[in-house]
Specification:
Layout: E1 9-14, H1 18-29, E2 35-39, E3 55-56, H2 63-77, E4 89-90, E5 94-98, H3 102-112, E6 121-123, H4 125-130, E7 143-147, E8 151-153, H5 155-168, E9 172-175, E10 179-185, E11 188-194, E12 197-206, H6 212-217, E13 227-236, E14 249-252, E15 257-262, E16 265-269, E17 274-275, H7 285-298, E18 310-317, E19 324-327, E20 334-338, H8 344-361
Parallel strand pairs: 1-2, 1-12, 2-9, 5-14, 12-20
Antiparallel strand pairs: 3-8, 4-8, 5-7, 6-7, 10-11, 11-12, 13-16, 13-17, 13-18, 14-15, 15-16, 19-20
Helix pairs in contact: 1-5, 1-8, 2-8
Length: 382
């Protein structure tokens, strides 16, 4: 008998990206194994999870994100024994280029979190440029900081670890299943209508990435205006006779660009945020070209004559750019795990555990649940 025809599942998770996968792992770790994850695509992590730069950058002006990133970093640096077959994090470091007022604000954040283990090294413009072979124009570097313990996340290893252990503990995954609507009975969410039939559940988790808003609108939940924003990425060939393989990520707020080593070249992003309806996003060549002109002002030697592969992904934000995690106050049985923006991978160990504790225990000791709750946006109109 299939799930669509059988008894209700305890937890139904919509979406097998990094959010849904991490939740399934942490639920199964707590003994909640009657879990079904459904995904509209034919494979996990197809959209935002599979198109991310996948870098741990612990510094953030938003206090909630700062703490979530640091919590996630602990797991990424020292995952549980047997979780992964190779390291999840390559500590190449992150070089952050800033100007006022961001410099003072983030420096205060770094100092405040030093006792919690955040390492933060201020650099002169020359020291910053030397970290990447002297390619930065020093008069373009107002202030710089190096985060030596951050670096590149092996997203394949992380996602595979979540999925493998969840499956081993009894979690079921079904792909090519699209949600058509939420089933309401007696004022509560009691399942979903899908292309594979009706699936009943005691609790439904909306972890659908860019589609979270569309799913919620069919359910009559708390009205939260999520914004999917497209971000374009391109691969740049490395300059002749320059070995970029051990460079850190370079993130320049003043120039709105970042780059890091990738496949012998550089992964380059113009840090665009273009509002877009949920879709299989494509890169914008004009925006990439504009970004390359900003890169030329910072590091002209890195601007190539031709580009390699290009792609794009959607990063989905809540109105205050803080993730939304918790039971919906307007629709019992409907749970949010949404709005991770551009840091869903690095925060997944924290958000997955927080969501699992809220579902299994009704509370979490890891974080201030109220700061993530959908209730902060107000209830839906009756």
């Amino acid at each position: 008998m299939t799930r669509a025809e059988g008894k209700p599942v305890d937890v139904l998770i919509i979406g097998a990206g990094i959010a849904g996968a991490s939740l399934s792992y942490f639920l199964s770790e707590r003994g909640v194994s009657d879990v079904l994850v459904i995904e509209r695509e034919s494979q996990p992590g197809y959209h935002a999870s599979g198109r991310s730069a996948a870098t741990l950058v612990e510094l953030d002006e938003i206090a909630e994100l700062q703490k979530l990133k640091m919590l996630g970093a602990r797991f990424l640096r020292e995952p549980p024994a047997g979780f992964a077959e190779s390291p999840l994090l390559e500590r190449t470091g992150v070089l952050s280029l800033l100007r006022e007022p961001q410099w003072s604000a983030l420096r205060q954040v770094a100092v405040a979190n030093r006792s919690a283990g955040l390492r933060f090294e201020p650099l002169t413009p020359r020291e910053a440029s030397e970290r990447v072979g002297g390619v930065l124009l020093e008069d373009e570097v107002g202030a710089a900081a190096f985060l030596p313990d951050d670096g590149f996340i092996d997203i394949h290893e992380l996602l595979t670890g979540y999925l493998r252990h969840a499956k081993r503990r009894g979690v079921e995954f079904r792909f090519g299943v699209e949600v058509g609507g939420i089933v309401r009975e007696g004022g509560q969410c009691r399942g979903v209508a899908t292309t594979a039939g009706l699936i009943r559940a005691r609790r439904v988790v909306n972890a659908a990435g860019a589609w979270v808003g569309e799913i919620a609108r069919t359910a009559g939940t708390t009205p939260i205006e999520f914004r999917p924003l497209r971000r374009s990425v391109a691969i740049l060939p490395a300059p002749p006779d320059v070995d970029v393989r051990r460079w850190p990520m370079v993130w320049s707020d003043p120039h709105s660009v970042y780059f890091r080593p990738e496949s012998g070249g550089l992964l380059f992003c113009p840090m665009d945020e273009v509002p877009m309806a949920p879709c299989d996003a494509s890169p914008d060549e004009a925006i990439i070209a504009e970004g390359l002109e900003r890169l030329r002002a910072l590091a002209p030697a890195l601007v190539p004559r031709t580009l390699g592969r290009r792609w794009a992904g959607l990063r989905t934000f809540s109105p205050d750019r803080v993730p939304v995690v918790g039971d919906d106050p307007a629709l019992p049985g409907f749970f949010w795990l949404a709005g991770q923006g551009g840091c869903g991978i690095e925060t997944s160990p924290a958000l997955g555990r927080i969501a699992a504790e809220l579902i299994a225990d009704g509370k979490t000791t890891l974080f201030d649940a109220a700061s993530l709750s959908p209730a902060r946006f107000g209830a839906a109109a009756p």
